[in-house]
Amino acid sequence: MKFYRYAMAALSALALALVLISLVHTNAGFIRVLDFVREPALYGLAALALLALLTLRKWRWLIAAGFVLAAGIELARVWPYVSIAKEEVVLERGQQADHCFSALALNVKMENTEYGRVADLIARRNPDLLLLMETNRTWMEALEPALSRYPFVISKPFDNTYGMVFASRIPVDSARMVANTASNTPTLYATLRPASGRSIEFVGLHPRPPLPGQSTDARDKNIARAGAITPDGSSEVVVMGDFNDVPWSHTTRRFVREGHFLDPRIGRGSYPTFPASMPWLGWPLDQFFLKGKLSVAEFAVLDTVGSDHLPLEATVCLDQNPVGTRR
Questions:
Q1: What is the pLDDT of residue 215?
Q2: CATH 3.60.10.10 residue ranges in the chain?
Q3: SS3 content of the chain, % helix, strand, coil (to 5)
Q4: What residues form DSSP beta bridges with 192?
């Protein structure tokens, strides 16, 4: 029993120390990755606090307090993405279909060979805008029949897991993929003209993840710039992609702040997309943001199609009213 007590005390101290370290505003990758697991860590810390109270006699309140304090800090960081928090964007269901368009984003996982499941997803959901990531030439060939249904397709297939393809049924004024966050890591900028005639910009982003032993300074600045400065400077912008980051991190919060974006997940949950096999214990690596006179009719994470990421789908409508009010 003494060993168990000491082990729980050490675990409580370690958990609190790691949570406090994770608050340090740094570009060190080994600290930044602690952001990813805040939500599942919150549940685990709460369970450990309860376990300490139920199984310990000596030191139980002190040990439980360490777990509770660590859990409280994690909760404060992810609070906007708890379902009882205040919503930032109201879902405007029931809008006229001719004012709306659907968008689907998916990291297919380059090594995934279940091409048919992804093709079936595209056929079944039939999105107006399609963004696929980790696409190499093998994926492009496998999805050629599905992509041929789109009048506009732009792609950069790579074998480094950062290939990208964008397909649109909406008329495209301009589109390009640039090395915004790193070489051979394209960012998509597309200016679209829906039936309303008012142009909107679509940004597709898939930056490299923060890695232990590497600084993320240049990456973070480039991600922030990717949303703050769009080629045509439209006031209506939609952003989707695998950010390799979570929405409560310093990097993504800066992206949202400098780009003046809104997030429909706030007040509804985190919508975890990775890993696809355990979404209830996962985290939201795939993002969806928008700004301007746009509204959201639907927003959902879809079922697995063999990738380690889940597909993210949204229905966006052009509106005369802003999507929400920043708190």
A1: 64
A2: 97-318
A3: 35, 25, 40
A4: 172, 200
**pTM, 2 dp:** 0.90
Among 221-235, 250-264, 312-326, which range has the highest average pLDDT? Answer: 250-264
Distance CA 146, CA 123 (A): 7
Residue 12 burial by Cβ neighbours in a 10 Å radius (0-12, 13-18, 19+): buried
Second-level CATH architecture of 97-318: 4-Layer Sandwich (3.60)
Which residues, in sequence order, are CB contacts of 88 under 8 Å at separation 6+?
80, 262, 263, 264, 266, 267, 324, 325, 326, 327
Q: Which long-range contacts (CB under 8 A, 24 or more apart) does 207-213 make?
A: 207/181, 207/182, 207/243, 207/244, 207/245, 208/162, 208/181, 208/182, 208/244, 209/33, 209/244, 209/245, 210/29, 210/32, 210/33, 210/244, 210/245, 211/29, 211/33, 212/29, 212/30, 212/33, 213/29, 213/30
- Per the prediction, the chain carries an average pLDDT of 90
> What one-letter code names the amino acid at 214?
Q
Q: Is 178 helix (H, G, I), strand (E, B) or coil?
A: strand
Output the furthest CA–CA distance in the chain (Å, rounded).
72
Could you list the beta-strand ranges (E) of 51-210. 100-107, 129-133, 152-156, 164-168, 172-182, 185-192, 200-204
pLDDT tier for residue 228 given thresholds of 50, 70 and 90: confident
